[in-house]
Design goal:
Layout: E1 7-8, E2 11-12, H1 19-29, E3 44-50, E4 55-57, E5 60-62, E6 66-72, H2 79-87, E7 91-94, E8 99-105, H3 112-134, H4 145-151, H5 156-181, H6 195-222, H7 224-229, H8 250-268, H9 272-289, H10 299-303, H11 308-315, H12 331-335, E9 342-346, E10 352-356
Antiparallel strand pairs: 1-2, 3-6, 4-5, 6-8, 7-8, 9-10
Bound molecules: zinc ion (ZN) (2 copies).
One zinc ion is lined by residues 234, 240, 290, 311, 315.
InterPro entries: Fatty_acid_hydroxylase, Sterol_Desaturase_Related
Transmembrane segments: 114-134
Keywords: Membrane, Transmembrane, Transmembrane helix
Amino acid sequence: MNIKARKFGGFRAKNQLTDRQDLFIGRMRRGKAISVKERQRKLYTNNKGDGGGYRYRGGRMWSGVYDVYELELTSVKDNTELRKLLIDTTGYFEKDSDFLFLLRGKGGYVSDEVLGTFLPIVVYWVYSGLYLMLGNMDNYRLHSKKDEDEKNLVSKKEVVKGVLLQQIVQAAVATVLFAVTGDDGESGADRHASIFVLGRQLFVAMLMLDTWQYFMHRYMHQNKFLYKHIHAQHHRLIVPYAFGALYNHPLEGLILDTIGGALAFLVSGMSPRTSIFFFSFTTIKTVDDHCGLWLPGNLFHIFFKNNSAYHDIHHQLYGTKYNYSQPFFVTWDRILGTYMPYELERRPEGGFEAKPVKDCKEH
Ligand SMILES: [Zn+2]
Ligand SMILES: [Zn+2]
């Protein structure tokens, strides 16, 4: 097979390796061996070493996270297959005409699992920060500012502390879980998953998370002990606002979000890379459902029946037995008769009010 010498991600394929590259590969090959996963492409021989932190660039060794694959060229069907393979490759060395050493980055210095754990936290504060920057928005609020100050049973400072505590606990648990069950960075394996497959995975994950959260959330209302000691914390916000979205008891965060998220991830079969998107999107959706505003053109209000007004009903004292569904669809509420239809009415002083259509106040 004829492979053109070309520069690729800082590496140059050559027929002859320089001493330094030889040394480099030698170091790579002496790296700790890791088990080969079944789903690894057949293209590779079963020789996989862990890069363990060497990366050659500009004549210097840099620390980085790479997998090294030894590719037997006879196992590659044609040039198209080889090209496809090289797109996924950070760099390669041609050792001789039969073998190619591929370096596959695991997405830079940070693994997808770590990103999937920490990016949603950043996304949470950035997205709710944007809502904060919008200011009072009196013409679009679902409750007056006065109601927010008077009805809520917890200060904003306490809310920030509570959210941070919950995020720290969840990130710690997720990190430990990944360390125990850990994948070794095969996350690029389905980088070429079709849009159809990605769409199906995301949809399955959404259904799974919704199902888990509906029943857990509803149970936390029905079981007086759990409500009093755990879920009541979230309901201290009668008038929700964006950065209060994850103001929960840490145990609630673990049960609803961490376990629910893990189930959605496992059942959908998505890659850790896809999960970065899924968990970030879920975070944005949850923040939006608590934004306390009804803004024109908000895509979440257009595409989801489960939105800020729908969830606002649940946060009212009369609505706590309705609209349990979260964060995406209203399906379970509809099937199990806990769906509370509402109408948006203009408030005389500006803004809107989500009013239940059925009279649920006496229940
Ligand atoms: Zn609730
Ligand atoms: Zn809520």
